[in-house]
């Protein structure tokens, strides 16, 4: 019995680690199409959350009362 790192024979996992990088399978193509918009949406949600957090920190009552328009 020979001791190898992978339990699979060499030819079984030859295609798993991208032995042929030019060959885009249908599954990986669909996964790629899903991954990019999801990543962009996640980034947008993060920035929107930061924006809302910054807006929520502003006390608008104080801003309006201290504005020069309100004083005159």
Gross morphology is rod-shaped
Determine Rg (CA atoms, Å).
28 Å
Please tell me the overall pLDDT: 71
Can you count the beta strands?
0
Please write the string of helix (H) and strand (E) elements.
HHH
The chain-level structural class is: mainly alpha
End-to-end gap: 92 Å
**Low-pLDDT residue spans:** none
Q: Helical residue percent?
A: 55-70%
Largest sheet: none
Beta-strand content: under 5%
What is the oligomer described by this structure? single chain
Could you walk me through the main structural features you see in this protein, from its secondary elements to its overall organization?
It is a single chain. This protein has 72 residues and is an all-alpha fold. It has a domain at 26-71. It is 60% helix and 0% strand. It has helices at residues 26-57, 60-66, 68-71. The protein is rod-shaped and about 65 Å long. It starts with 25 loop residues before the first helix and ends with a helix.
